[in-house]
């Protein structure tokens, strides 16, 4: 994906900050619940939050891979004109990460 440096820096800063806040909230919640109830008395929503952390991490990684890993099949005319076998391979990989992301 052809993005400029300003967008890349802003995207990295925003996604990393949001991911860090989300993980901090989930981990704080789980630690609080474990200290209060113990592991054996956790409720189903606590286990869902653990699953949520896994899916949230996958979303963060896949979004980052799409932006910084070559992009997807959404290309400008200039990108199409400059395709090489290497960029085609990175676009294919990026398209697969888009599927994971969606």
Low-pLDDT runs:
none
Total helix count? Answer: 4
- Biggest beta-sheet profile: none
Strand content: under 5%
- Mean pLDDT score: 89
Radius of gyration: 19 Å
Q: Helical content, roughly? A: over 70%
Given helix and strand content, the structural type is mainly alpha
What spatial form do the alpha-carbon principal axes imply? elongated
Number of strands: 0
Q: Cα distance, first to last residue? A: 17 Å
Q: What pattern of helices and strands is seen along the backbone?
A: HHHH
Could you characterize the architecture of this molecule?
This protein is mainly α. It has helices at 5-37, 44-68, 77-81, 85-101. The radius of gyration is 19 Å and the shape is elongated.
Structure, briefly:
The chain is an all-alpha fold. 78% of the residues lie in helices and 0% in strands.
Question: Which key features would you list for this structure?
Answer:
102 residues, mainly alpha, 78% helix
Question: Helices, strands, pairings?
Answer:
Elements lengths: L4 H33 L6 H25 L8 H5 L3 H17 L1
Helix pairs in contact: 1-2, 2-4
